[in-house]
Amino acid sequence: MAAAAAAAVGGPQAPQPELPAPGLALDKAATAAHLKAALSRPDNRAGAEELQALLERVLSAERPLAAAADGEEAAAAGSGGGPGAAEEEALEWCKCLLAGGGGYEEFCAAVRAYDPAALCGLVWTANFVAYRCRTCGISPCMSLCAECFHQGDHTGHDFNMFRSQAGGACDCGDSNVMRESGFCRRHQIKSSSNIPCVPKDLLMMSEFVLPRFIFCLIQYLREGYNEPADVPSEKDLNKVLQLLEPQISFLEDLTKMGGAMRSVLTQVLTNQQNYKDLTSGLGENACAKKSHEKYLIALKSSGLTYPEDKLVYGIQEPSAGTSTLAVQGFAGATGTLGQLDSSDEEDQDGSQGLGKRKRVKLSSSTKDQSIMDVLKHKSFLEELLFWTIKYEFPQKMVTFLLNMLPDQEYKVAFTKTFVQHYAFIMKTLKKSHESDTMSNRIVHISVQLFSNEELARQVTEECQLLDIMVTVLLYMMESCLIKSELQDEENSLHVVVNCGEALLKNNTYWPLVSDFINILSHQSVAKRFLEDHGLLVTWMNFVSFFQGMNLNKRELNEHVEFESQTYYAAFAAELEACAQPMWGLLSHCKVRETQEYTRNVVRYCLEALQDWFDAINFVDEPAPNQVTFHLPLHRYYAMFLSKAVKCQELDLDSVLPDQEMLMKLMIHPLQIQASLAEIHSNMWVRNGLQIKGQAMTYVQSHFCNSMIDPDIYLLQVCASRLDPDYFISSVFERFKVVDLLTMASQHQNTVLDAEHERSMLEGALTFLVILLSLRLHLGMSDDEILRAEMVAQLCMNDRTHSSLLDLIPENPNPKSGIIPGSYSFESVLSAVADFKAPVFEPGGSMQQGMYTPKAEVWDQEFDPVMVILRTVYRRDVQSAMDRYTAFLKQSGKFPGNPWPPYKKRTPLHPSYKGLMRLLHCKTLHIVLFTLLYKILMDHQNLSEHVLCMVLYLIELGLENSADEESDEEASLCGPERCHDSWFPGSNLVSNMRHFINYVRVRVPETAPEVKRESPASTSSDSLGSLQNSGTAQVFSLVAERRKKFQEIINRSSSEAANQVVRPKTSSKWSAPGSAPQLTTAILEIKESILSLLIKLHHKLSGKQNSYYPPWLDDIEILIQPEIPKYSHGDGITAVERILLKAALQSRMNKRIIEEICRKVTPPVPPKKITAAEKKTLDKEERRQKARERQQKLLAEFASRQKSFMETAMDVDSPENDIPMEITTAEPQVSEAVYDCVICGQSGPSSEDRPTGLVVLLQASSVLGQCRDNIEPKTLPITEEEQIYPWDTCAAVHDVRLSLLQRYFKDSSCLLAVSIGWEGGVYVQTCGHTLHIDCHKSYMESLRNDQVLQGFSVDKGEFTCPLCRQFANSVLPCYPGSNVENNLWQRPSNKSIQDLIKEVEELQGQPGAFPVSIISETNLSKEMESVMKDIKNTTQKKYRDYSKNPGSPDNDFLFMYSVARTNLELELIHRGGNLCSGGASTAGKRSCLNQLFHVLALHMRLYSIDSEYNPWRKLTQLEEMNSQLGNEEQQLEVPILYHDVTSLLLVQILMMPQPLRKDHFTCIVKVLFTLLYTQALTALSVKCSEEDRSAWKHTGALKKNTCDAEKSYKVLLSFVISELSKGKLYHEEGTQECTMVSPISWSPESMEKYLQDFCLPFLRITSLLQHHLFGEDLPSCQEEEEFSVLSSCLGLLPTFYQTDHPFISASCLEWSVPALEIISQWCSEINTFTETHAEQGKALLIQESRWKLPHLLQLPENYNTIFQYYHRKTCSVCTKVPKDPAVCLVCGTFVCLKGLCCKQQSYCECVLHSQNCGAGTGIFLLINASVIIIIRGHRFCLWGSVYLDAHGEEDRDLRRGKPLYICKERYKVLEQQWISHTFDHINKRWGPHYNGL
Asked: Which class for 724: exposed (0-12), middle (13-18), buried (19 or more C-beta within 10 A)?
């Protein structure tokens, strides 16, 4: 088997040696060169034979595939060790031979030089980012690769970026698909001229080698395909493809060498002789034969014949076993469907449990079986495509075939081959398991071929492309037909597609349909289609498969048990397979010359409809309780009619059928309108939610203009041509409300439950209003339509630009010209709407940019009818009305609840004038009269909406009345006197004034009307009218309709056959016997429509005689009727407007109105209503009102609660923070009182029942991100820009600590600095308190509550029970009285020396706490546990800095650093300084006081070795000898290297709490002297040698003045002289240039330096004082911050005068002689610098001026980020990540969710958030433009800071429009990061399980 498939024909058969011939062993290059030389000779036969022999040996060296495929051991693979090696060898040989002995790389370069690169043609696969520019594209499918796009000029164009779904190719340089102006710089040059001719010998070898190579590939493919009985498994095919990967890649690389190589390949692929020679399998070579046999088997099994062996494979007879239901009547002679071939498919699918719905097969005359069944391959290209299809379009093959497309000759050949295989593609697609992938690959190819008009036209002419496509589509749908159950279930001959089939459900047909739509968009092709009658017939056949699919039957008894969701498949199928081709065809029927096409389509459409009516056995009544939303034939007909009238000036009547057909046509669309009303009335509720889904989809924006719009238009056409009385009565009958239209107060409805009557009546009237006022197809221009659609959408809600684009139904065919985003769209938008820029609400909800209607739009263009037509949800209509009401109130036009305004309509197109006859027919007038009467009499089931619609119809009638009143009077005695008793004529204007006296009604015997006597004095005339009116009342609606129908039928057909059926259908409507007896009663009415209107006016206004004709006062009104005061208002206004119009239309009406008003009619008592009924009505109303009141109250309550929460949180600081309230006068008012928000009790916090503050502890690295330069860093967007973190605060502090630890004693180092710049613990509270035991039970209940919360209770997380703020711990409140505070604050007059002693003593005694604390109380336990919480909040690495792990010094350092972190962060929240003063937001809810108690308690458990307490060093002079003895052990840190702020915290936390104010001030004063000295030393190091000596001198002179200790000059000179003793200043020889600062120091700049050095300490100290003693911070200017803070801290003597400039040194207060202590401090430094002068200097200069932290600055345009990062490789795994992300704090590039970078189960983003932000990460997701926040174990999507030009986000870059930074949003993000409020503001958190 393995050796068997060597293929060779051509030249004499070479003997096949068993072992490789010695020739092979020779150097390949030499052989290649030798052969090339041989072939270049004029007589090259010998060379050719030699080459053949060689190739034969090389290319068939091994056949590993056969072995692999058969699962045998690859034992035969003797040489080359395993399958792979032989392939490698063969490829190496090919490369050598092609290069003809030279190097392969050089050969490639040489070929590339001859590339005429006019086209880009870059092929890409799914998920590639490409661009589409609508401005430059000719074809809608045009796309560009990113490189060509950015190199071209598209500024101001309508372009977008998109992720390719199916793959594609770059069209740059192809002028068939795009305009040349859009070409990029590379492809603008038409370069064919200047490229030199290809030298013959360069590609000579390729021409010899490539045919064999490709043939070898084809043999591999034949070998690998085993056609077993079952479908070959994916696995086998993939295995074969993997083995072939290198070969195909080799071919792909060849195509990339450019045009010269492509043309050689084209020659090889399309040469028929070559193919014949190599593959015919006729030689004696066994392998070749075998291979050919496999090929034939494969063809056969695919149901394809090879033309030569017809005998072997005759066209099968239908196998007997299949259920063939021959539907001759349907297919008739027009049938084009062949029997489906493989019968096995039938049985497989039949078994899918479709139950009774058997598949239907159409057996019919085989029109062109060859399209489906015959394939003959004549070239390599054809067979390659065949195998590509067989193997289900492997990506590599597709790419290779597409890469060749820039070669024009190949393009044509390939397109023809593709068309030839079209049927086979469809069959493979249907069987495929991976139909989605396969569909994408098919379209990837076909869109490249069919988007080109020239090519499409050529293939249409030469290869019958249209025939093939239509036939293939028919065949495809044929496989899933079932019998239609519409109308006549038993006898129906119609078949429809079954939407439950996979074919429809999975949209498997879309590649074929999309190709069809694509070619129909070319005018030349569409013309062929529209001219070809046979094709049109076939196509209408295809469309009729969808006519009536997915039939819904109303469930009347129990709820349907299984809600099928197939309806979506049905809607998608109609839209894609029927509507879109229809729009494509319509786009070519725009001008007069195309009339013929329309006539053709309309003709075949009507024929198909007629066939359909016959097939479903339709007479005149639709079957009850069933509806289908799918009538594509009706819609084709409607749309072509509309186009004919609108664009082609065709006469409408010439394309309309006879009356009978029109009556049939209107039935089904009308049925849908009625069903919509039924569905909304909840009559279909037992069919489940899906029926509502269908009703919504039918009107939804993507479907409406292919569904409801054509339906309504068709009904408008029918109404304009049919008898109006017939049409109106049909409508009310369809809506089942005929029985309701009676004057009687009670009636019986045989077809409708009472509870549905009202909404069905509303539905019927609303439908009539829409029908009569919609002008979409009746005369509006495209721009007017666009404007109306836009106004309707904007009135419902403010809309974003993209949702508007989505909601405006576009013409689905892209070439139609009204493209969303086109010029007209933008101009209309700016005309009707104002743009509201995106505002940011502090609550954190992101607003998008919205468009809102302009005021004049509300005033003049708001059209409720359009809104009702376009709303998917009923609530949107209400929303529009609410917004309208609000507008009227705001603009002062109308205060009350307005009615929908009446809007003037565009004039009707003359062809449709007949539509207005509906308004002037007696049937409608009777209905209107009846309804007005019923409303006036308060009958049941009538609503304001009904009245509104009735008035709307009357007004429409008046607006559209015929003006000749005189004619009308004359026509009275015409023949039409059938119910004159009601109205004399048919004109509404005159009928309005006609009085109706008596009406006979049929009522149930129980009705109140029966009791009354008939009126005594009835004149014979009125009795006569009574006789008529008996029938003329409502039953006449049905009767009339029957009569009309009869007439029409008799007119149109003389056969009696029709009459036979008639009685059966009419009998349905006779009253069923079960109903109670009806009797006849006679009502006295004596009203006309006008009088009813005037009475209604009285009723609505609630006043008698409220109507007074306005023209009596102001005759002008009649002359200029358009009065603004009538345009907006409620029912009263509407009635006044109608009466005014009626008076305008005729003098008679005017007179009658005046008469009625004179009579002053007493209001009619509503005697028709019984008390009981009245009660129920009232009850209903009362309930309604109560409900509304309740809603109002709830809303009010909610808003109150909200505002309370806000004030409560902002204004009340926690009670314990207000010691001020308690005056010293009443010392016995003891302790602070806390409210527990759980149990609601208030009381003090006690030892055994402590209270705590709800707090959130979080680790934070925000402080560490401060830098010392003002400019924030920007996000890197090139390789050069990188961000290095060494200038951040965290890095600087780290370096300092490790430096100290190198040279000094560890325990001492840990007191000299603070940690917590990274991973410090920040404590924040919402200010609410609770008992700690209450909290524990609260946590228990949360733990048992299994609701999915956004937080983890096991980690101690909860939400504050009162304000729902996120929290994770409780901070105990220290029991103590407020008074205490006050006593401690009294100033004492002790000297500073005494205070210093006291401080030292207090620090010494550990037992300074109340004794009880030492013993275990609840309070101390809680304090311990909260301390544990604080430690666990941050990671170990941020706590342990000691060299010996676990040392107590470490805990000590950690604890005072927590205090430091919180103070520093509060400072940052205040903007980095204290100038604003006051208790800022942080102060209001601060928990620092409680935190201090907890920390102090724990710090006192550690005592500092008393012989080394920094306090001593600060306040006492030591004997000099003490330092000498301990040379051998490490030194203590010199006091001048200490961080003063840390010292402050250590000193204060070591004191017993609460602290006395004077002790505090004392500590601050002492530390300030140290700080000042540090500032002086730093200054001395910073300046140059000369400056130093100068200062040393000037200072020394003043040394003995009185306030020497307070003069910085004296002190500085002293410091300099002291330090000069050591080596600190010496080592500057080398570094002179770097250290010397260029500035010359003036006294002012020195003073400024000193102040700046000291300020950070003063700020922190003032904050601390504010928290400990509750003193307010003063506010000040920035320049006076130093003096204000120092006086506030008590450093400045009170008598200090402020007239001369402020000097910082005046704050000094030395407790020991200044110069002595300074000299002592300096000596420590000198000792150190003896050995380490460099480090000594570095440690002295502390950088204390940190700027506020910032996130990285982002570029203006998002594209800059996207282009750099989306292709960037990850530094860890060096792959391009699937979801790249970048950290906005430090700029690190990470893989989101990437398993490649996972470490110990943490994905990279989570890991980075821990390292960079101690658990908080802010990442920008590159592919989505969205920011994601990681906080600990949770994450949330924050939103996007990039918005498009319309202020909208574009999540996932779906729209691909250019995005720009929104600075406000970014500021908010930064603010939330700095203030640590992500947890509180963002609501949607979820756990990430370390997977991000």
From this structure: buried
Which pLDDT value is given to residue 1121?
57
Residue 111: predicted pLDDT: 80
* Alpha helices in 225-280, H assignment, sequence order: 234-255, 259-270, 272-279
Q: At 964, is the pLDDT very low, low, confident or very high (cuts 50, 70, 90)?
A: very low
Query: How far, in Å, CA of 424 to CA of 377, rounded?
Result: 13
How many CA atoms, within 13 angstroms, populate the side-chain half-sphere of residue 68? 21
350-354 mean pLDDT: 36
CB 1351 within 8 A of CB 1359: yes
Cα–Cα distance measured from residue 153 to residue 1038, given in angstroms and rounded to the nearest whole number? 69
Query: Cβ(1821)–Cβ(1337) under 8 Å?
Result: no
Beta bridge partners of 359: 482
**Amino acid sitting at position 1503:** S
Residue with tokens 């119609």: 494
* CB of 442 closer than 8 Å to CB of 393: yes
The mean per-residue pLDDT over the stretch 809-819 comes to 53
**pTM of this prediction?**
0.82
Q: Which helix (H) or strand (E) holds 1260?
A: strand 1251-1260
**Residue 1321 clears pLDDT 80, i.e. is over it:** yes
Say how far apart CA 1543 and CA 1311 lie, in whole Å. 7
The conformation of residue 1075, written as its DSSP 8-state character, comes to: S
Report d(CA 1681, CA 1675) in Å as an integer. Answer: 8
Q: For 585-616, what is each residue's pLDDT tens digit?
A: 998 888 888 899 999 999 999 999 999 999 99
Nearest to 1663 by CA among 1477, 1484, 1538: 1477
DSSP H or E run through 1664: helix 1643-1669
Peptide bond into 1554 cis (omega under 30): yes
Distance CA 617, CA 470 (A): 28
Cβ atoms of 813 and 526 within 8 Å: the answer is no
Position 1719 scores a pLDDT of 86
d(CA 1299, CA 1279): 33
* Tokens found for residue 1793: 């969710």
Least confident of 226-230, 362-366, 1832-1836, 1854-1858: 362-366
Ranges of H-type helices in 545-658: 567-573, 580-586, 595-615, 632-647
8 A C-beta contact, residue 327 and residue 484: no
**Distance from C-alpha of 1046 to C-alpha of 1042, rounded to nearest angstrom:** 6
DSSP state for residue 1214 in the 8-state scheme: P
Query: How many Cα atoms occupy the beta-carbon half-sphere of 1011 within 13 Å?
Result: 5
Of the candidates 1571, 1618, 1577, 1580, which has an alpha carbon nearest to the alpha carbon of residue 1599?
1618
Position of tokens 């419902």? 796
Distance CA 1375, CA 1384 (A): 16
> What does the DSSP 8-state code read for residue 870?
H
> Residue 1830 is encoded by which pair of tokens?
């990681």
Q: Read off the tokens for 651.
A: 């006469």
SS3 state at 1242: strand
Strands 1320-1331 and 1251-1260: antiparallel
3-state SS assignment for residue 729: helix
| pLDDT at position 661 | 93
